[in-house]
Amino acid sequence: MIDVEELKRRFRECYPEAGEAFVCRAPGRVNLIGEHMDYNGLPVLPMAIAQEIRIAFAPRTDGVITMQNVDPNYPRVRFENSDDIERSGAGSWENYCKAAVQSLNRNLEKTSFPGMDLLITADLPVAAGLSSSSALVVACALAYLGVLDQTLGRDVSRLELADMMARAEQYVGTRGGGMDQTVILNGEAGHACKIDFFPIRVELAPVPDDYAIVVCDSLVKVEKSGAALARFNAGPWACRLACGLIEQQAREEFGDEVELKRLGDLWFGPLCLTHDEARGLCERAIPKETMTLAEVCARLGQTEEMVRRRYIDTMQEPEGGFPLQRRLRHQLTEFKRVETARDALQAGDAEEMGRLMNASHASCADDFGISSRELDALVAAARESGAVGSRLTGAGFGGATVNLVPLEKVEAFIAGVTASYYHDFLKHAGEPPIFVAEARSGADYY
Ligand code: NG1
């Protein structure tokens, strides 16, 4: 990783006209448990890690924002700051910076729009499920706050900024929730963060100190804002559709005034149901394994066009209908696992944590449909090599797995996974992309 002084030196080389540079950082994160829950307002349990994005930045007087990456694979870009910044094409890396700047301009009600020069570096792998995209959004937000002379923690709180940036990232086109931005801004050394949403709340849970959190990259890249966007959004869309059907059922049972903005409102909204009550309502709302679009329209009394506009956008109907029951089962069971996992960490019970991680992977694979052949093979190799818990982490389909491994078994674990997954299964000859993740503090300035 390029150190802070070297980054400043390169900044001067890259922008000889600019004034003195400051440096900010935003870490990546690994989610221990609670997948595809945040956008439904349901809890998650991630931790911020040591790998991070660093940005050297200095203000400009002409309202232009320039972005340069130390990695020459990223094109140098420049765009005009304004109250309505035009989005670049899908998959363009500057959109993450545009999202942060646009959101701060609007939330802080800016009427003048200063520019800035940015030089970016990272030791966080891209598209590996470690949230490099949100780290980039948050790091750009910190740089821009610096240019605006606003102090993090005083003018804007960490929770407020997390909420702003979660909504901001939807500018890129993904329909994720606020997990990444919240943990990136609120992480604490040695701890995972149990996060609840609407409003965002963070509770710390210690990572067991006689176990390592080991991250293995499956080497299957998932460009969430590019080609994989529709596949990622299928999760949020299916949950929205399920939520619409449950709202219909709840209105019939409790009265027409019931409104469910998201699944989490079953527990946290005015309905305030228990787990058993929520499960019962869900079973009555979606009584069979799959539902066709025609059946959903009939149940909701809406046309296909209305259902697409409100819930599922361009999502294709699978043969045999949408597997809503399984998608919902993942939400209900994963919610409970996250709460139990928080308790297990607080009690220092790593074996229980491992068991929950294994159950979460099965649920992600079988019920939510976000695993892949490679992720399943990597998880199997990890368990055979000494992990007490192993699961995919992040959006799924590729990216990384997270593994809970007793400290004394880490070496054997790495050797085992290297042989059985990277060599035998993938035929990958290079260095195995495995690292031990340390729980670190959230984004800040150097
Ligand atoms: P990653 O792993 O960074 O692609 C995405 C969403 C999260 C969450 C997870 C699934 C964004 C920025 N991130 O994370 O909010 O929904 O998938 O648990 O959309």
Features of this protein?
446 residues; alpha+beta; Ribosomal Protein S5, domain 2; 4-stranded antiparallel β-sheet; 19% strand
Describe this structure in words.
The protein contains 14 helices and twelve strands. It has a six-stranded mixed beta sheet with strand order 4-3-5-2-1-12, with helices on both faces. The chain has a four-stranded antiparallel beta sheet with strand order 9-10-8-11. A hairpin with a 7-residue loop joins β3 and β4. Among the domains are: 203 residues, Ribosomal Protein S5, domain 2 (2-Layer Sandwich); 99 residues, no CATH class. The chain is of the alpha+beta class and 446 residues long. The two termini are 15 Å apart. Helices cover 42% and strands 19% of the residues. It binds 2-acetamido-2-deoxy-1-O-phosphono-alpha-D-galactopyranose. The site of 2-acetamido-2-deoxy-1-O-phosphono-alpha-D-galactopyranose (NG1) has 17 residues, from α3 and α5.
